[in-house]
TrEMBL record:
<feature type="domain" description="Methyltransferase type 11">
    <location>
        <begin position="56"/>
        <end position="158"/>
    </location>
</feature>
<keyword id="KW-0539">Nucleus</keyword>
<dbReference type="GO" id="GO:0070476">
    <property type="term" value="P:rRNA (guanine-N7)-methylation"/>
</dbReference>
<keyword id="KW-0808">Transferase</keyword>
<dbReference type="InterPro" id="IPR039769">
    <property type="entry name" value="Bud23-like"/>
</dbReference>
<dbReference type="InterPro" id="IPR013216">
    <property type="entry name" value="Methyltransf_11"/>
</dbReference>
<feature type="region of interest" description="Disordered">
    <location>
        <begin position="211"/>
        <end position="291"/>
    </location>
</feature>
<feature type="domain" description="18S rRNA (guanine(1575)-N(7))-methyltransferase Bud23 C-terminal">
    <location>
        <begin position="202"/>
        <end position="289"/>
    </location>
</feature>
<keyword id="KW-0963">Cytoplasm</keyword>
<protein>
    <recommendedName>
        <fullName>18S rRNA (Guanine-N(7))-methyltransferase</fullName>
    </recommendedName>
</protein>
<dbReference type="Pfam" id="PF08241">
    <property type="entry name" value="Methyltransf_11"/>
</dbReference>
<dbReference type="InterPro" id="IPR022238">
    <property type="entry name" value="Bud23_C"/>
</dbReference>
<keyword id="KW-0489">Methyltransferase</keyword>
<comment type="similarity">
    <text>Belongs to the class I-like SAM-binding methyltransferase superfamily. BUD23/WBSCR22 family.</text>
</comment>
<keyword id="KW-0949">S-adenosyl-L-methionine</keyword>
<feature type="compositionally biased region" description="Acidic residues">
    <location>
        <begin position="221"/>
        <end position="235"/>
    </location>
</feature>
<dbReference type="InterPro" id="IPR029063">
    <property type="entry name" value="SAM-dependent_MTases_sf"/>
</dbReference>
Length: 291
């Protein structure tokens, strides 16, 4: 059976009382989730002015990731679909306000009230259809649209995810861009199977200098250790793929000929000395039916 929990059962079933307790009492998990959350907070790049911010922790679970936010002096709201995880978070008396909810149905928060969002090891769950009524694309759309809406303009969302493959990463990123985010993916330890970690670093608003994906550490391509606990900061390679909104799809005619093909063809005819109408924005546009 796959070791990916999201392929085993829906989150609210997988994280039942037993699993939620096991998850929260594993010192290995506590350590990993804390490291991931610290990195996510670093990538959020909040102003260094000592002012507490209101942050959102999406898929907060039992509050391991939220604890990092509290330790750094921030207030937070945590949302999770698993009641068992949230019960443990309450038992542990975390500082955040906890909400039971499904991110795939939208976050339901007031517009513009959140100063930054993190999500640690949770968003890849949206790519699975756990019920016949689930359509991952619709759920990703609902999630990213509502996330965009609740963030203050210019605020960031940093989502650490475990996409199953490149197509899944592209799917998630595509829906983020369509919702209006700019940004891209930061990959820590790209050459390590065990330590490789991906963060979607998204900024609420159109691309600008301030919305650029954070600079890479050790971009010289030095290979890094495969050992999670090596702790050798110098050898931590970070690669970045920066993406803004997807380009408009080229319209293709029935014969598979798009604008580019027509422009090339016109150029060819001109070179042959034929009289060809000038290229305009209307070139290769589909005519309305009345023509
Ligand atoms: C691996 S745990 C991570 C928990 C926490 N972020 C941490 O770092 O310890 C993933 C969490 O995502 C939650 N989750 C998965 N799908 C969700 C959804 N559709 N809506 C809200 N939470 C979800 C699960 O219930 C689980 O608590």
């Amino acid at each position: 059976m796959s070791s990916r929990p999201e392929l085993q059962a829906p989150p609210e079933i997988f994280y039942d009382d037993t699993e939620a307790r096991k998850y929260t009492s594993s010192s290995r998990i506590i350590e990993i989730q804390a490291k991931l959350s610290e990195r996510a907070l670093e990538l959020l790049a909040l102003p260094d002015d000592g002012v507490p911010r209101l942050l959102l922790d999406i898929g907060c679970g039992s509050g391991l990731s939220g604890e990092t936010l509290s330790e750094n002096g921030h207030q937070w709201i945590g949302l999770d679909i698993s009641e068992s995880m949230l019960n443990i978070a309450s038992e542990r008396d975390v500082d955040g306000d906890l909400l039971l909810g499904d991110m795939g149905q939208g976050l339901g928060l007031r517009p513009g009230v959140i100063d930054g969002a993190i999500s640690i090891s949770a968003v890849q769950w949206l790519c699975n259809a756990d019920k016949s009524s689930h359509e991952p694309r619709l759920r990703l759309k609902a999630f990213f649209t509502s996330l965009y809406r609740c963030l203050a303009r210019g605020a960031r969302a940093v989502l650490q995810v475990y996409p199953e493959n490149v197509a899944q990463r592209e799917l998630i990123l595509g829906f983020a861009m369509r919702a209006g985010f700019s940004g891209g993916v930061v990959v820590d330890f790209p050459h390590s199977t065990r330590s490789r970690k991906e963060y979607f670093v998204l900024t609420c608003g159109p691309p600008s200098l301030s919305t650029a994906v954070p600079k890479a550490k050790g971009e010289d391509g030095e290979s890094c250790s495969d050992d999670e606990s090596s702790g050798d900061e110098e050898n931590q390679t970070v690669s970045i793929s920066d993406r803004h909104r997807p380009r408009k799809k080229q319209k293709i005619t029935k014969k598979g000929r798009g604008r580019e093909w027509i422009l090339k063809r016109k150029e060819h005819m001109r070179r042959k000395g034929n009289t060809v109408p000038p290229d305009t924005k209307y070139t290769a546009r589909k005519r309305k039916a009345r023509f």
